[in-house]
Amino acid sequence: MATSSHDDDLQTESALIHAGRPDGKTPVWPVVNEPVYRISTVLYDKAADMKTAAQRAYGDPYYGRRGTPTKHQFEAMVAALEGAEHVMAVSCGLQAITVAMLAFLEQGDHIIVSDNVYDPTRKFADTFLKRMGIETTYIAPIVDEATFTAAFKPNTKLVMTEAPGSGTFEVPDLPMMTRIAHDHGALVIIDNTWATGYFLDVFTLGVDVSVVAATKYICGHADAMMGTVSTNDDGQWRKIFATSNQLGLSVSSDDCYLAARGLRTLPMRLDQHEANALLLAQWLSEQPEVTHVLHPAFPDCPGHEFWKRDFKGSSGLFSICMDPDIDQDAINHLLDAATMFGMGFSWGGFESLFIEMNNLDKSRTAAPFPADGALLRVHAGLESADDLISNLDQAFTSLRTFRG
Ligand SMILES: Cc1ncc(COP(=O)(O)O)c(C=O)c1O
Predict the structure, then answer these.
(1) Residue ranges of the chain with per-residue pLDDT less than 70
(2) In a mutational test of the pocket of ligand 1, which residue from 193, 209, 223, 258 has the highest number of ligand atoms less than 8 Å from its CB?
(3) pLDDT for position 5
(4) How far is the CA of 211 from the centre of ligand 1 (A)?
(5) Ligand 1 atom having least distance to the Cα of 162
(6) What is the CA(41)–ligand 1 centre distance, in A?
(7) Which of 50, 63, 128, 243 is most buried, most CB within 10 Å of its CB?
């Protein structure tokens, strides 16, 4: 039951609603980070202001779903990372991919997709987009100019690619692809999760829209899901913004806070992931059971010349192909024996991972993957490379004993 409050003449229920609320006049504290704003309602001073609220610029106070200062702080940081004018944070990397594609597509359109994209991107095209009456043509991860040109149709609206593919690591010739796509009136969207803007400035290569699964290196601590969509074009931004609103996309300030906190240290972490991955990849390439190392910085990686030309570095994720004579039990034994490496979905956190890529190489339709053995993916974390290598060393020794 209501009891009288200590303040004013309000009942407790009312006092609890009104006490301690921001008055909009208190100066903001001079703290380093934008605090976590947990909001739905934004209050307007005057009825007339609320009538025109929908015209407020993106980033101005409006309503919780559109964003909070915590979200906009994070988006401003991603804009600096990607070299983009406009950034939309969404709730995971896959959502960034799907909203970016949906923003530009209508029934009856045609799209071109690289054969080595993140598998759920492919599933989205093969199911949801297909149901919408959108046709997909897959192209080989490394495609020459004539083959790429031949894939275009009069209704081709966009090209979706990834550089490198996050399972098999081929690096496409992005400037060639963006030039030809633009000649055909199509946009290029890239999944820039592996390199991020730190290692690859996609907009200088002509890419229109960059999507990043911020869940990986941006958050960097395996503790949050987040995605970003970035563009430098006002018209494209309006479509992305409108589609996000129509779909009701929203992201929590708590997650934006974690993502912003991760992003502050992304350069130092990526430098360390890069150094560790190169050492691990080199060591693995010397093991007789490993037939190939798939790492863009290795000269025999398909598209290595484009990586050298376009990228400023390489991150912590790469794959290895195993000798086809090694059976599934032995592969499982190796993965189990590498005890410093976790097994789980995702990557880009501070921890090392070692997993088998189930069927990723086999889902291709444009260009078969040229290896028969198991495809294993390594994420080099931030541990000491010496410790990681000695752990792999004992795992490979154990594999040899297991196989007899
Ligand atoms: C290359 C790539 N893009 C996008 C995603 C999707 O990100 P999320 O898991 O945040 O939806 C992933 C996730 O593994 C990924 O590896």
Answers:
(1) 1-8, 25-26, 359-362
(2) 193
(3) 45
(4) 10
(5) 1
(6) 31
(7) 243
Q: Counting atoms of ligand 1 from 1, which one is nearest the CA of 193?
A: 1
Active site positions, annotated:
65, 118, 191, 216
Residues near ligand 1 (Cβ within 6 A): 92-94, 118, 162, 166, 191, 193, 213, 215, 225, 227, 346
Domain positions in the chain are: 67-264, 266-403
The predicted structure's pLDDT at residue 13: 84
pLDDT 10s digits, 371-404: 889 999 999 999 999 999 999 999 999 999 999 9
What's 67-264's CATH class?
alpha beta
**Ligand 1 midpoint to CA 250 (Å):** 18
Q: Which amino acid is at 344?
A: G
Distance CA 141, CA 125 (A): 16
Q: What is the CATH architecture of 266-403? A: Alpha-Beta Complex (3.90)
- Is it true that 67-264 and 266-403 share their CATH fold? no
Can you give the pLDDT at residue 3? 45
Is this prediction's pTM over 0.90? yes
